[in-house]
Amino acid sequence: MPTTALSTDELIASIPKQLLIGGRWVAGGMGRSMAVEDPATGRVLCEIADADAEDGRRALDAAAKAQDGWAETSARERGEILRRAYEIILSRTEELALLMTLEMGKPLAEARGEVAYAAEFFRWFSEEAVRIDGGFARTPDGRNRILVMRQPVGPCLLITPWNFPLAMATRKIGPAVAAGCTMVLKPAPQTPLSSLALARILQQAGLPDGVLQVITTSRAGEVVAPLLRSGRIRKLSFTGSTAVGRTLLAQCAEAVVRTSMELGGNAPFIVFPDADLDAALEGAMAAKMRNMGEACTAANRLFVHREIADEFGQRLATRMGALRVGPGTADDTDVGPLIDEASRRKIGALVDDAVSRGARVLTGGSMLDGPGYFYSPTVLADVDMSSEMLKTEIFGPVAPIVAFDDETEIVGTANATDWGLAGYVFTQDIDRALRVCERLDVGMVGLNTGIVSTPAAPFGGVKQSGLGREGGRVGIGEFLEYKYVAIPVRG
Ligand code: NAP
Q: 439 and 477 share a domain?
């Protein structure tokens, strides 16, 4: 159990349940509320405000009103707010971890890891805030001067998913604050409590009223579409599925809103015969089982060279089969529940489909008794390429293994998907490592590692996995515009 002094009920009671608009916590949606559920028990944790389109408009009004003043603050001031928020988050690790485990299901150890990861985005962008630069040049003919300034894009809409409730919020709020943008944050309805807690922390850290609004809603489409079409939102930063991303891109097109899109993935995990097998197994456990497999970077297709496929499969099954499944709040849990029953049923159907096409179940392959939405860690061998799970995001604790023979062929197979977020390559041959890293059609590659996420690197995908990058040196640029001033110099 966590070491926070607060009981679960006290912790839930301490979180604001209203909308944050213009620095005030207000009831929304004409007093309507929506339930937040614990996926490990199906129990309702609490009710929170359920915003409607009018609340969305008021939130945007507040963000628009605060924009000019906020853009005028010094970069140091903005950076120090982030730095203070970073310290507060770390000092409240246990509370925030427990909150995330309760609303999302991940084991406490993973939730603590996410708190640290989330906080790091604030530290990183506190350091980036003071490095916003510009440029000065002469035109090639020597007559004119070119002054380049970088300015905040303006009010932003931030939409986050449920799988990393805290980190997906800080990965957007951090650069927006650093750049001097105001924001409306719409968290996922399954996991709003982490965002509400985070908003209060930012208030405590000194974020001025109106810079961040938080609107929780069960009617995302109804609330968001008018904001994007209003022309007053200048930037959408979205993390979620490719299907929803496409819809939002179409809405953004109408008012030509700038976008950053962090969408779904279908990561190949390729193990060559010269790989260090222990490292590959370690990598597979991390890339597959982090967050119960509910990660956009999750290894979705495990391609293992035929010479080692049996040994790899057996050893992975032994490790996966030994994982303890249970509520994330229990000390000995390795794997928590899935987010909901629909997700669990989808995974069950994907496994049944693969088995009907000849896959062998090496471990797992079944739903576990509830009341929560548990599914056993599963390894499948001899998965046929026609199986549905190789063509879609599994988003659960299922590792499908496909044996391969040839490097060129497997890179082609790995790239034969509309997605291109992450990929993983295990080999000790430096030439092959570089060749395959270069040829994989993805935004991020884990070379002999199963973890790619860090605030210091540009995170994002190609093809239908997204547009733009979050984190790294480029992350703040997503929230800045260039303005160029032409200056003729006479005489
Ligand atoms: P989702 O269903 O696409 O939802 C993401 C967010 O969009 C939620 O807040 C959701 O709220 C909102 N939304 C849905 N329809 C909307 C609409 N018409 N207008 C405005 N907002 C709308 O995704 P999810 O199930 O929460 O998250 C899992 C997905 O996120 C996976 O595909 C995963 O790969 C992806 N993901 C990507 C990254 C990355 O960095 N590339 C990171 C994490 C997750 P409602 O639920 O209320 O509709």
A: no
